[in-house]
Amino acid sequence: MNLWSQAWPWVARLGLAGVLAWAGWAKARNPPLFALDIEAYRLVPGAIAVATAYYLPFVEIFAAVALFIRPVRRGGTLLALVLFTTFTAMLALAWARGLQINCGCFGTAAASSATNYAWSIARNALLFGLAVALFRRDSRADLKS
Amino acid sequence: MRAALCQAVLLLVLALVPAAIAWQRLPPEKFLRPTGDDGDTADQVTLAQVAAWQPAPLWIDARTAAEHASGHVPGSILLNEDTWEALLPGFIMAWTPGQRIVVYCSASCAASRRVAVRLRLAGASEVSVLKGGWEGWRSAHPEAAAR
Q1: Could B28 and A32 be called an inter-chain contact, meaning their C-beta atoms sit closer than 8 Å?
Q2: What ipTM did this prediction achieve?
Q3: Which helix (H) or strand (E) holds B45?
Q4: How much is the pTM?
Q5: Labelling B117: which of A72, A115, A134, B23 has CA 20 to 30 A away?
Q6: Considering Cα of B133, then B136, then B141, then B147, what sign does the dihedral take?
């Protein structure tokens, strides 16, 4: 039990960082195509979609790295929480509007491979729960030290 | 909570640096064309515009292989995102550097725009997207499309 209580934050950290870094890197490799992914949601004007496409992947990568750097790890987890909340809201809106798009969650897959909204939202909910648990645990640990 | 917020803001500021580098390396205006109020992008061309081009452009079919097999613009090259790596050599063989390119897919699909961006990233500069797509071309050329 004690071993698990020590191990789970690292498992959670690795899981969250892995997903964020993978997603960020895949998008950062090709921002112009990611801009089209964002535009497909029809939520923001084109110029904002483009700026977001160039910026967001690096926010994900920095959040992933920060999870392992003690002085900024809670900031990294907080960013992860905001990102997962935003992504989930965008997916839910696209689903509700019946859009058949690729979410662009992990880079620029072909537009023909439409996203499974239920699966993507469930995945984000799991990651969100993991990030909440990690944030609470790190907050307690930082208060003690 | 306040400390976490400050940390998050610091990370957000730091992330601006690689984002600016990416913007410099892949300037968006080189690969993306703005969308107008009517929903059309600046790189869209009509059949009438394309018909006036000399020399003739290279047509790129961004639909699936099955759709291409069931009918396509004569001389068009199949090039879609699903099998990009496998189809790209066929495009390179058919394209003369500097030649204009017109990409089409179905009227309601977004694939032609994505393929146009990929072609610009690959080094082609004169890439346009056909307004009305395959359906528009087919209705303008009923005899050719039936072949």
Answers
A1: yes
A2: 0.88
A3: strand B44-45
A4: 0.85
A5: A115
A6: positive
